[in-house]
Amino acid sequence: MMVPVVSGMVEIPSTTVFVDAGSGKYEVDIPHLYIAVRKAGTIIPPNPWAYPVGSEEYPTVKWYSSQHHTWDPKINPGGHTGEDLNVEVLPRGDIDRGQPAWSVADGVVSSVGYSAGWLGVVVVEHDDDGTPVWLRYAHLERDLMGVQVGDRVVAAQLLGTLGNYTGGDTGDHLHFDAALEPFEWNVYCDPSISWIDPVPVLRRHLDDQVIDAMLAKG
């Protein structure tokens, strides 16, 4: 049976299905993903990159960064590596708690950890057009991180949800930073690490207007 569709990308939220395998019923978790819909004879490849935050309740364009352009400790020793992404809804604070954090691309988990100051942290090695880049996703709920060191992840795979972060004045948020070499999950503002601005990495693969909205101050 032919079903008329429009060619393009279709976003499917994470969900759980139940499978009756004869020996019992099993829960199968299907991660948040994007699929391509195509016309006959025309293949539309999916974008192999995704946004690090966003949900049906708080779409990606409603997030903003509170720490832009302070990522390089060589230039700004008292600064802040990367970006802090918060929901652009007032009041901010704890409304981000429980919101999803997604892997922005396929990759391999290189470091995972937890501390009272950081909460849960996942570092993933990604391929940025042939250049290895390590991205950190931090301030996650410990019990809801679903990956371990060595795991392979795919773009738009759920890495965890934002936890109850009390280490700063920005409320619950995703700390998102990048380096050109591997680093341990709890390293911070170490000038010996080759930190880079994570924003150009995202711009090379994703919509500029969405990235601009993510960086806009509220």
List the helices and strands and how they pair.
Elements: E1 8-12, E2 15-20, E3 25-30, E4 33-37, E5 63-65, E6 83-87, E7 100-102, E8 107-115, E9 119-128, E10 131-140, E11 152-153, E12 158-161, E13 174-179, E14 195-196, H1 198-203, H2 208-215
Antiparallel strand pairs: 1-4, 2-3, 5-6, 6-13, 7-12, 8-9, 8-11, 9-10, 10-13, 13-14
How helix-rich are the residues, as a percent range?
under 10%
Q: End-to-end distance, in Å?
A: 49 Å
Assign the CATH class of the largest domain: Mainly Beta
Number of helical elements: 2
CATH topology of the largest domain: Glucose Permease (Domain IIA)
CATH architecture of the largest domain: Distorted Sandwich
Structural class: mainly beta
Task: Write out the CATH superfamily name of the largest domain.
Answer: Glucose Permease (Domain IIA)
Specify the biggest β-sheet.
Answer: 8 strands, antiparallel
> What proportion of the residues form beta strands (DSSP E)?
25-35%
Number of E strands: 14
Summarize the structure.
The protein is mainly β. The chain folds into 2 domains: 1-46, no CATH class; 60-215, Glucose Permease (Domain IIA), CATH 2.70.70.10.
